[in-house]
Design brief:
The protein is mainly alpha-helical. The protein is built from 17 helices and 5 strands. The structure holds zinc ion (ZN).
Length: 366
C-alpha cells in the first residue's frame, strides 16, 4: 500500500503524520514475523528462541500495521464519495460558493492529517466522514434546482414543440425568401429556440451515482441558467414582435413609388392579394408561396444594402467623447455615404443586422 501510495480526494495518504517513516521500520518487523512462522504449533512455540524484549521491539510495527489498516479501511469506505465530490467540483463554476467551501474543507483535512498524531488518526477520519456526505447531499439539491431551471420540463417541452410549428414562425420562414427582410432576426430566434433543451428524466438517484445528468450532460458552468420557461415566454413575445416589424417593413416598401410601378406588372390575382394586404394591413393567413413571389417581384426594383448595427454604433459612439449635434450628424452622414457608394439612393434599402462582422456586400434583389 505504501509503495504505490494511497490517493484519497487528491491527497496522498502516505503523508499522514510520520507513517512513511514508520513504514520503513516495517521491513525489520517483517523479517522477524517471517522467522516466527516456523513456530506453527503450540509444541514448536515452546522452543521459541526470542526473549520478551526482542519481541516487544516490534510491537510498534504491529501498531503501524494497525494504523495502515485503518487508512485502508477509511479509503474503502469513503473513497467513492471523495471521488464523486472531486468530479462535482468540475461541474460548477470555480467561483461557486459550494466549490469554495469544498476546497477549503479538503485543505483543512489535508493539513489536519499531515500534522496528525497517529493514534488520533481514526478520530480525524471519523470527523471527515461526517463532512463528505452533507457536501454531496447539498450538491445534489443544488444541481437538481439548476437543472430544473435550465431544462424544459414536460409542459415546457410541449410549449417548445408548439412554437416550432407556430403559424407565425412559418409565416416568417416564407417571408425570409424576400431579400429585404432582416433574416438574421429569424435565425437568432431559431437558434435561441433550438438552444432550449428538454430533460425531465433526471432523478436524485442518478445524481447519487454521478454528479452530472446522465440524460443531457447538463453543466451549469458552460450553460446559461435563465429559466427555460421564462425563455419560452420571451420567445413567444419575440415572435409577435418580429411578425409586426416585418409586416410594417413590407407595407412601407409597398408604398414606395418604385414598387407601385412594379405592382401594375403583376398578374391580376397576385396584384389583388397584395392590394388586400395593403388595405387590411395584415398578412394573409395562410401565407402561400405565390404571395411571397408577388412581393419579390414588387420589390425587384429595390436594392438591399446590409449594414451592421455594430458598425453604426462604432461610428456614432465608438470611443469618442461628448459630441455636438453637427458632429454626430456629420458622422452619420459620412457612414451613410460610405454605405451607399455607387448605389442608386432611390432604390437602396438599408437592412440593419446585429452581427459584429457583417459584410457590406450588397445584393441586387430579384
Ligand atoms: Zn438532464
Amino acid at each position: 500500500m505504501l509503495r504505490e501510495g494511497v490517493s484519497f480526494w487528491g491527497i496522498d495518504l502516505r503523508n499522514v503524520g510520520d507513517l512513511a517513516v514508520r513504514a520503513e521500520k516495517l521491513a525489520d518487523a517483517k523479517a522477524f514475523l517471517e522467522s516466527c512462522q516456523a513456530y506453527s504449533s503450540p509444541g514448536k512455540l515452546k522452543n521459541l528462541r526470542y526473549a520478551a524484549s526482542e519481541i516487544s521491539v516490534h510491537a510498534e510495527a504491529v501498531r503501524t500495521l494497525g494504523l495502515m489498516e485503518a487508512v485502508r479501511d477509511f479509503v474503502a469506505r469513503q473513497g467513492a464519495t471523495a471521488h464523486w465530490l472531486s468530479l462535482a467540483e468540475t461541474v460548477l463554476p470555480a467561483e461557486h460558493e459550494w466549490v469554495k467551501r469544498v476546497r477549503a474543507a479538503r485543505q483543512e483535512f489535508e493539513s489536519a492529517i499531515r500534522g496528525a498524531d497517529l493514534p488520533r488518526l481514526p478520530e480525524e477520519f471519523e470527523r471527515l466522514s461526517g463532512t463528505l456526505r452533507p457536501f454531496k447531499r447539498e450538491f445534489i439539491t443544488l444541481y437538481m434546482d439548476l437543472h430544473t431551471r435550465a431544462r424544459l420540463g414536460v409542459n415546457d417541452d410541449k410549449r417548445k414543440s408548439t412554437l416550432l410549428t407556430d403559424p407565425r414562425l412559418q409565416t416568417l420562414q416564407r417571408l425570409a425568401g424576400i431579400e429585404l427582410m432582416p433574416r438574421q432576426q429569424l435565425t437568432d430566434f431559431q437558434n435561441r429556440l433550438a438552444g432550449l433543451k428538454s430533460c425531465f428524466a433526471l432523478t436524485e438517484r442518478d445524481l447519487d451515482a454521478s454528479p452530472i445528468c446522465p440524460h443531457c450532460g447538463f453543466r451549469p458552468q458552460t450553460e446559461s441558467v435563465v429559466a427555460g420557461g421564462v425563455m419560452l415566454a420571451q420567445l413567444d413575445k419575440t415572435l409577435d414582435d418580429v411578425v409586426t416589424s416585418w409586416t410594417s417593413a413590407l407595407l412601407a416598401n409597398l408604398e414606395d413609388p418604385i414598387t407601385r410601378h412594379n405592382l401594375d406588372l403583376l398578374a391580376p390575382k397576385d396584384a389583388q392579394a397584395v392590394a388586400d394586404f395593403v388595405a387590411s394591413r395584415s398578412l394573409p393567413d395562410p401565407l402561400d408561396s405565390d404571395f411571397v413571389q408577388a412581393l419579390r417581384e414588387a420589390f425587384s426594383g429595390l436594392v438591399r444594402v446590409a449594414a451592421s448595427l455594430h458598425d453604426l454604433d462604432q461610428t456614432l459612439v465608438g470611443d469618442h467623447g461628448a459630441a455636438t449635434v453637427d458632429e454626430l450628424r456629420g458622422r452619420f452622414e459620412s457612414w451613410i455615404d460610405k454605405l451607399l457608394k455607387g448605389k442608386d439612393r432611390q432604390k437602396a434599402r438599408i437592412v440593419l443586422e446585429s452581427g459584429a462582422h457583417e459584410n457590406n456586400e450588397n445584393q441586387e434583389n430579384g
